[in-house]
Recover the amino acids of this structure.
């Protein structure tokens, strides 16, 4: 809107400029219509930008109301209390806390302004402290500074809100209703990212969505497969949809060392953690081992009620209702170096190494959350290293312990096996027949009681299978079998258990053995040359082996059946990533799943018929393809016969009138021809 001057201002300006207003006929002046007098301003865009900056530029300021009204002598104390409360949530700018004072009474007015470094900190402060009870008489009312203008525009009279018709949102799980019961996967190759169906029946993938430069780093499915996250310099983007992939949320992330925890549905920062790289290093400050990702580990079962991080002599456990420390303090554990969550229960496993040159033994402890009660502890002596492996149902915990020999010149390995769900959590010790065998790989059977170990020092190590049950004695570990001399250095169980792939990656050039642990027999042996990755699909029906861009050649992936049959190959240059889309847990009860397994033949008839139809269709397609190739060949032969006939007279002329094209009617004769190639003269002296 144009600026308006009062007549008093006009007279003052005229006097300053020595202008006699009485000599001017203002009524004769005719100005162009419109507020800008028909002259477009060059700075309109600037004004708009300034307006936008005004609306969005104060997003890092909050207004805290219902503070105590105190006199001048208590001002500093109140300011200190407020600063202490709000500096715990984020960094308050220098001179960023302003508490207005009544100029007449010199008392505070009962509110203050707090300016944070970022809008995210301000939003979090509002969310965490609105309704905060300072005392009985003072309960904070916290608002964003930007909201004040909105409140000022609230009409005096109430009007009922406009009722809008309900429009249901997209079904983000629609992909689970695929009639062919197919699974999806995402790949990154070159600049392209693609989501595809695994159509094993057609022996090829089917494209769902493709986008160039979709991510600047990598992509990641959410644990239940609902969302796909792409990573960018500005932060992360969340994608999903019923039939395609739409951007559902942006999660902005500043260019500095900070960890933000977002609510995926709203995009709100629920909690952020600031600090240097050293502060996020494993074991706290110092950063000897560097920053280990993930810094925070989620736990507490399927609801992910807790998350935790390791610090110097502490484990900090937070709960997800308020995103604050449990009991407002960390768990103190002197010299703790590692921890892991049970996959199904709020139980932490902690490892503390030896101290004092072996005078204080190493130990593994199980701690219940949120009570912080120690459920079980095991002291370990002469320990050089320790690794913990949870079984997927949280029934068992295997602790691989490398111990020094008496001479301290070498080490040997054993396992401490915790039976978590049994009374008093009994522990069993397992040692290999050859204590000196190096442990190359260890893996639990998902949802099962068996585990596999690759062990040995020679180029062809052994693979042993064990069960946590022993015949009628379910509380005793037993060995099932040992496979001698295998070209394997990695273990990949099917997510449904029973089947396992013994993989020889890297130095073994992609050797694969598909093994049935129920029958203790090899189903197939194969090779994917230079394979770097093995990924089972969520159902355990199919498995992918891939060669990523760590190798310059042979990039791409192969899709196999669970029993080792190669279904199709997809070559891709500059192949970076392959990820199956996870499936959420089944809604079926264990009893229903067991009933389906018992009556599988009855349920499978429908799918066998569909498979037969697809097989017949593929056979028909193959026949059609062969018929078209034969027709193309016949057309090619006919064309060459026609050209041959058209050139018959030309060939006859070249044969001096001989009409026949049959080579057998001609007699071959050998003719000797003498040809003078060169003549030279040379004078020979007879002296």
């Amino acid at each position: 809107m144009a600026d308006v001057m009062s007549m008093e201002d006009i007279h003052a300006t005229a006097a300053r400029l020595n202008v006699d207003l009485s000599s001017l006929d203002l009524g004769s002046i005719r100005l162009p219509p419109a507020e800008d007098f028909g002259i477009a301003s060059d700075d309109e865009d600037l004004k708009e930008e300034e307006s936008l900056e005004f609306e969005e530029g104060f997003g890092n300021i909050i207004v805290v109301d219902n503070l105590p009204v105190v006199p001048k002598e208590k001002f500093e104390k109140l300011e200190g209390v407020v600063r202490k409360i709000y500096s715990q949530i984020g960094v308050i700018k220098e001179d960023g806390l302003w508490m207005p004072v009544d100029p007449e009474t010199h008392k505070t007015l009962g509110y203050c302004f707090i300016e944070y470094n970022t809008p995210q900190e301000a939003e979090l402060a509002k969310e965490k402290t609105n309704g905060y009870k300072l005392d009985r008489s003072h309960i904070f009312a916290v608002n964003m500074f930007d909201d004040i203008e909105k409140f000022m525009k609230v009409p005096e009279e109430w009007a009922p809100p406009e009722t809008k018709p309900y429009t249901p949102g997209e079904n983000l799980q629609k992909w689970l209703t695929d009639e062919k019961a197919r699974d999806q996967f995402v790949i990154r190759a070159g600049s392209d990212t693609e989501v595809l169906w695994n159509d094993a029946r057609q022996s090829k993938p089917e494209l769902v969505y493709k986008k160039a430069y979709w991510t600047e780093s990598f992509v990641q499915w959410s644990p239940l497969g609902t969302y796909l996250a792409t990573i960018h310099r500005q932060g992360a983007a969340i994608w999903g949809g019923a039939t395609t992939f739409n951007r559902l949320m942006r999660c902005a992330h500043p260019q500095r060392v900070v960890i933000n925890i977002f609510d995926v549905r709203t995009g709100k920062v629920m909690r952020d953690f600031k600090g240097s790289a050293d502060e996020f290093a494993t074991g706290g400050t110092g950063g000897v081992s560097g920053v280990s990702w993930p810094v925070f580990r989620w736990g507490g079962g399927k609801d992910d009620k807790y998350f935790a991080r390791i610090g110097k002599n502490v484990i900090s456990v937070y709960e997800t209702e308020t995103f604050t420390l449990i009991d407002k303090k960390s768990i103190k554990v002197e010299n703790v170096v590692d921890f892991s969550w049970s996959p199904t229960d709020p139980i932490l496993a902690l490892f503390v190494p030896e101290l004092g040159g072996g005078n204080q033994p190493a130990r593994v402890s199980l701690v219940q959350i949120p009570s912080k009660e120690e459920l079980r502890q095991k002291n370990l002596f002469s320990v050089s290293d320790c690794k913990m492996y949870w079984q997927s149902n949280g029934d068992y915990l295997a602790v691989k312990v490398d111990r020094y020999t008496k001479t301290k010149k070498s080490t040997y390995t054993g396992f401490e096996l915790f039976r978590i769900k049994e009374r008093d959590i009994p522990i069993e010790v397992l040692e290999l027949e050859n204590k000196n065998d190096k442990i190359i790989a260890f893996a639990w059977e998902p949802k099962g009681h068996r585990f596999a170990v690759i062990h040995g020092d020679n180029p062809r190590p052994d693979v042993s299978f064990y069960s946590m049950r022993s015949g009628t004695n379910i509380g005793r570990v037993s060995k099932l079998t040992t496979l001698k001399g295998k070209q394997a250095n990695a273990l990949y169980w099917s997510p449904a258990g029973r089947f396992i792939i013994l993989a020889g990656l890297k130095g073994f050039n992609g050797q694969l053995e598909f093994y049935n642990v129920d029958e203790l027999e090899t189903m197939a042996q194969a090779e994917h040359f230079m394979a770097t990755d093995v990924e089972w699909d969520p159902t355990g029906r199919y498995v992918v082996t891939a060669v990523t861009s760590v190798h310059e050649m042979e990039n791409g992936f192969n899709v196999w059946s669970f029993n080792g049959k190669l279904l199709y190959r997809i070559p891709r240059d500059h192949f970076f990533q392959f990820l199956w889309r996870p499936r959420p847990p089944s809604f079926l009860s264990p009893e229903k799943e067991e009933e389906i397994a018992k009556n599988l033949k009855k349920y499978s008839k429908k799918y066998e018929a569909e498979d037969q139809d697809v097989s017949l269709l593929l056979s028909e397609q193959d026949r059609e393809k062969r018929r078209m190739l034969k027709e193309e060949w016949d057309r090619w032969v006919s064309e060459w016969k026609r050209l041959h006939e058209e050139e018959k007279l030309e060939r006859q002329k070249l044969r001096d009138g001989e009409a026949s094209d049959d080579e057998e009617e001609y007699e071959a004769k050998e003719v000797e021809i003498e040809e003078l190639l060169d003549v030279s003269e040379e004078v020979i002296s007879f002296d």
Remarks:
- The first strand starts at residue 61 and ends at 65.
